[in-house]
Design brief:
binds nicotinamide-adenine-dinucleotide; Dihydrodipicolinate Reductase, domain 2; six-stranded parallel beta sheet; 18 helices; globular; nine-stranded mixed beta sheet; Rossmann fold; 37% helix; single chain; alpha/beta
């Protein structure tokens, strides 16, 4: 195994999805080899403060449009260029900007690779993308190679190889590469993080989280441009959208800042929901009714950290159900859970009973929400999208580290391929790469300050 290089490892990992267990590949044993091969050193970018943040935005569909609206509310931000494969979407956003009395951004809509021309031609500080998943890494890499910071919607990357690509590029070009995980800025999540930092939970032991969202109508309808999302359910079987659940729990557990994910095991259920829904709503002759979907309706992955903490991560998007991310954090002194928001603190809450988290709002509400929650309230997803955009812009204006960095982006995204490998191999354990190459041991726990 000592001769196996990173590319071979990645090939074997990919093969695992096609049944590598049969040929006996040790899928979890090549971690050190992958880490040794990087030519760059782990580090955070050191960058000067900016007077204003000039943004090129790629992908102004559902989510991208909301981010643009957030930036239109902020001082010291200029939308310099807008790129989308659909010219009408570019024009719509250009009009929003000129209607706000600002200079018209340049438009880029000459095909799917036009973002490269934008990155090469425009003077930008930041390229921000909210495109379909497969474009996130190519767009971030083009941005950083051309001297721009990169921000991407979730997940940052789809494969282990893509994750390393982001890390290598960010380190080589000394650029921020931030994954915009809005759930890290939710009011409940930030209040829980605040309470964890203040010691209310004691030592953190365990978490349960996930993305539990009935997407049948979205995946099989016309929610997404070119129906890009359904392809992932057709071809892939694993925990495909891990970051919303994992982000806030990882912050409470100091992942990449004192601890790190060690390995996961993953199991998927049968796949029924999408085909049944297509049959009922689109008719038996529709191509989606005849399609075989690889994605199990429910995926359950278990993660263990190097320091022994445990996480259950669920992906559940193909069955009827109300929305949930669970957001359970459990320590030696307290446990909290979302949907609805509840907490139990030993010695304070009535024995064996939940209390509404609201009981502790005055004492532990996060300063970001206290100070600028009003500004955020009309933004998407209850305001958390505004707060994540605000924090990114503040970091660039102040020349300070971003809350989330490239190591967080890939650590939170990589469970999608790791779970696919585990599912394809009877739930065998699969090691997380240490994208930080030991840097996690030196770093202090994340503090997100107020505005
Ligand atoms: N954080 C959240 O809560 C949240 C919510 C929704 C979506 N998202 C993420 O946002 C991203 C976009 O999702 P969406 O729902 O807005 O999808 P969408 O289909 O509405 O938007 C994608 C946009 O990208 C454009 N596009 C596609 N390929 C392109 C290319 N090569 N160059 C330029 N533009 C291109 C499409 O024309 C479209 O306008 C996804 O990564 C998704 O996971 C995140």
């Amino acid at each position: 195994m000592s001769k196996l290089d990173r590319r071979d490892f990645l090939k074997s990992a990919a093969l695992a999805g096609a049944g590598a267990a049969i040929i006996g590949l040790p899928i979890a044993s090549c971690k050190e080899e992958t880490e040794k091969k990087l030519s760059t050193k782990p580090s955070l970018p050191k960058v000067a403060p900016l007077k204003k943040v000039r943004i090129g935005f790629v992908g102004v569909g559902n989510q991208g449009s909301w981010h643009v609206q957030n930036f239109l509310k902020m001082d010291n931000v200029e939308l310099v260029a807008i790129c989308d494969i659909i010219p009408e979407k570019v024009e719509r956003v250009q009009k929003w900007v000129t209607d706000a009395g600002l200079a018209k951004p340049k438009g880029y809509s000459a095909g799917p690779n036009d973002y490269v021309r934008m990155c090469e031609k425009e003077d930008l500080d930041l390229v921000y993308t909210a495109t379909p998943w497969k474009w996130h890494v190519p767009i971030c890499v083009a941005a950083m190679k051309n001297g721009k910071h990169a921000a991407t919607e979730v997940p940052a990357a789809l494969t282990i190889e893509e994750c390393w690509k982001l890390v290598e590029t960010a380190e080589k070009y000394n650029k921020h590469c931030v994954m915009m995980e809005n759930c890290n800025y939710g009011r409940r999540e930030l209040m829980v993080l605040n309470m964890v930092r203040k010691g209310i939970f004691g030592e953190i032991i365990n978490g349960t989280c996930g993305y539990l969202h009935d997407l049948r109508n979205y995946k099989l309808g016309d929610e997404y441009e070119g129906n890009w999302r359904i392809e992932h359910s057709i071809k892939r079987n694993g925990n495909l959208y891990p970051t919303h659940g994992l982000g806030p729990v990882a912050n409470c557990m100091n992942i990449n800042r004192g601890d790190r994910f060690d390995y996961l095991v993953s199991m998927s259920s049968n796949s029924r929901g999408l085909q049944m829904f297509a049959n009922e709503h689109l008719g038996p002759d529709h191509e989606y009714s005849k399609t075989k979907y690889a994605l199990g309706d429910v995926n359950i992955s278990l993660i263990k950290t190097v320091k022994g903490l445990t996480i259950t991560l669920i992906h559940d998007t193909n069955l009827p159900r109300p929305y949930d991310r669970i957001d359970m954090v459990q320590g030696t002194h307290a446990i909290s859970i979302g949907y609805p928001d509840r907490i139990h603190i030993e010695g304070k809450s009535p024995a064996h009973q939940w209390e509404p988290m609201e009981n502790y709002r005055d004492q532990f509400d996060h300063d970001l929400w206290k100070n600028i929650g009003d500004l955020a309230k009309d933004a998407n997803h209850g305001g958390m999208d505004f707060l994540e955009d605000y924090r990114l812009v503040q970091a660039l204006l102040n020349g300070t580290p971003t809350d989330m960095d490239v190591y967080d982006a890939v650590t939170l995204s990589v469970p999608s391929e790791l779970s696919e490998i585990s599912v394809a191999n009877r739930s065998k354990p699969v090691d997380f790469p240490d994208f930080t190459r030991g840097f996690w041991k030196e770093r202090e726990p994340l503090i997100i300050p107020g505005a």
